[in-house]
Structures are given as C-alpha cells and as structure tokens.
Sequence to fold (147 residues):
Amino acid sequence: MKDQLITAMVLAVLSLAAFGCAPQKNILLGGEGKGFCQELTSGKMWQLERGGPFSSLQEAEQYAAQLQLGGYDDWRLPANEELLQLFRLSFWKKNQGCELKQSGEFWSVSRAGKASLGHWESYILCDPEFRYVNALKTSGYVRAIRP
Fold:
C-alpha cells in the first residue's frame, strides 16, 4: 500500500511537471507611451487605460467606436474570450511594460453578439481555473481592442 501511494505521488509530480502550471506563451508588450499594449502572437492591441464607466451597452459601443488611439480608429468591444485572454496574460505576468487595471466590471460581447457586463476570476489550484462572473452592477468599463 505504501509503495502504491509513493508511486501515485511520483506520477502526480511528474504529470504536473510535464503538463501543469505551464505559463501562457503569448506576451503582452507596452505601446511605448502610445496608450495601448499589443499581444505578440495575435497582433491584437488593447487600450491601456480603461474607459468609463458606462451605464449601457450603447454608450460602451459608442465609446469604443469613437476611440482614436495610437493612430488607429478601428477599436471595438472585446469578445468574452478575448477578455479572458487578457486576464490570463495578466495572471501569468506576461504583460511586460503593460500594467492594466483589471478590477471592476467590463463590457464585452459573446460570439452571438450578446452584450455582457462582468469580470473574470481565477481559482488557483495548480493550473488556475477561470470563471466569468456576471455583474450585479449596471455600469462598467471598456477596455477596447483592435483589430
């Protein structure tokens, strides 16, 4: 029994070493005073300073659509999955020179175009699990993204 327990523990440690606790490979770099950060693998750009708060989806979308930042005018609200990617990059400290305030509720949209107001939370085990939490508030910030 003792040998089986030791074997199981060794296998668990080897599994974690091989698969678990692996940081994300993507890196978010600062835009050198341009007001945005850029993901190296996708090329997506994130607004550095959050806008708002805004009390409706229409206000949030209008803000993003009218945003002029870094010489670009094609900013938009992020998809829920994109907001998760940004949260993961910050969680893994892959945001070199790009400190983004993550607290608060943020506007995003689903793949089906449905508006969402909320935030991502992490639960740390080894590989953290992330969960989207819908906001109880009726206003939130915008962290615009492009393209």
Remarks:
- The longest helix spans residues 2-18.
- The beta strands are 28-30, 36-39, 45-47, 51-54, 106-109, 115-123, 129-134, 140-142, 145-146.
